[in-house]
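One thing: could you explain this record?
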Amino acid sequence: MKTVETLNEGLKREYRVTITAKDIDKRVDDEVKSIAPTVRMPGFRPGKVPPNLIRKMHGAALSADALNKAIDAGVRDLMGKEKLRPALQPAVTLADDYEAGKDAEITVALEVLPDIETPSIEGLKLERLTVPADDKAVMAKIEEFAAQMKRFEEAPKTKKAAQGDQVIIDFAGSVDGVAFDGGTGEDMAVEIGSGQLIPGFEDQLVGVKVGDEKILKVSFPDDYPVADLKGQPAEFAVTVKELKVPATSKIDDEFAKTLGLESLDKLKELMKDQVEQELNGLTRTYMKRKLLDQLAAAHDFDVPPTMVEAEFNQIWQQLEHEVSHEEDPEAAKAELENDRDDYHAIAVRRVRLGLLLSEIGQAHGVQVSNQEMQRLIAQAAQQYRPEDRTRFIEYVQQDALAAAQLRAPLYEDKVVDFLFEKAEISDRETTREELEAAIEADDDSGHVHGPGCGHDLDHKPAKKAAAKKPAAKKADVREEAAEAAPAKKAPAKKAEAKAEEKPAAAKKAAPAKAAEDKPAAKAPAKKAAAKK
């Protein structure tokens, strides 16, 4: 194999590799010997077919397979010989003029990871802001939980439905007078104003009484999960069977018993644990941001452009999805476009921090055990339908890149925890409001952060202004990888554009195709949730 370096510019490398016809032909011979025992041909006993006949029968397929294996081996040899650490999968191109029986010339183009000096972890200083889970915080959490567990009680027969009421209906939907699959139902409970059904459906129930029959005219959203119904005008014949009003939930022992607990004190114990977990999460978020800021400020090196572009595309797709749910998507997209360079700078920081954390972890022996990896795969599989989970597990086990992407967030957390152990930490008790304010400290600064400023991503995304006027703040980037939740599609709520910080290597593994085939919701079903 002959190798010639044709490009060495920054982190970019390109090589011309020549694989001899003799090497390819030898691989064909090896393949012939491998399959000979299984070849069947009239007039010959099993396993006795002459090699020249096997070549004649299967020559094209054997040659193609041998060429592919020779190219794979050539690329591996190149990586080892030149001691290359590719940032992403190398691009391999076979010369257009290649003919079977001749030498194969391939071009291997790649970007390599930068050489990073072993990062110093000395002198890290962090402040740990802690908030006690007091009785006031616990009761506030219980009240919030009680509000979510809204109960309804029978309303007077003469009452007209209002916002917040619940109506029990039968419905029959049609498009152009023709019924459609899933368009009929009985005894469906609808909370008016919840924003759970297709736009306009709930609003037209305001004012109905028990026994009323009404035709609701709506249009299915353009992103409705059933292709034949997307954007289609429809009518629903509705019969109101019951009307209920919100019931007041008194927080006492009886309320706790409705949850299967023996007393309010037991409920308080459980809620205190939850509040403590939330507060500990906020404390960790604050500390992690400050830690990453210190690392970013102390290290500056070139990063592979392809990794940056991949990370930027992920951020950009997420933001485009978020702003598509604004009241005026076009205005939001135009404003977002003005910030493209800022988000590209954020992608650079993400990649740099990802490489930095990886280097620190490798230098200090941080590892994800096989047991931890199996637990990760099992947890990730739970997001898919039962019939798809086995396929997902097999996919991750067979695809090294998917496994690495799944492993990366845990590895990142373990490196961060390792650095917490090495840092000098001072404790200070504060309030939840002050802790949240510290996390969001730069939210109103108008400064969009980038590499080198030392606090690029030290705040959460700013909420967009109403669509009728330009948004006043730029959407920023949240620090924790696990915090990005899909925006609700209820029209009454504005979406927040989020692009959470994480190392570039921590991208989520691509799901198995079968897992994407989710059953469509029945009309007038809840609007499709944004995919995770």
Summary: Residues 116 and 359 are 8 Å apart (CA to CA). The chain has twelve helices and eleven strands. The longest strand covers residues 233-247. Residues 442-503, 505-532 have pLDDT under 50 and may be disordered.
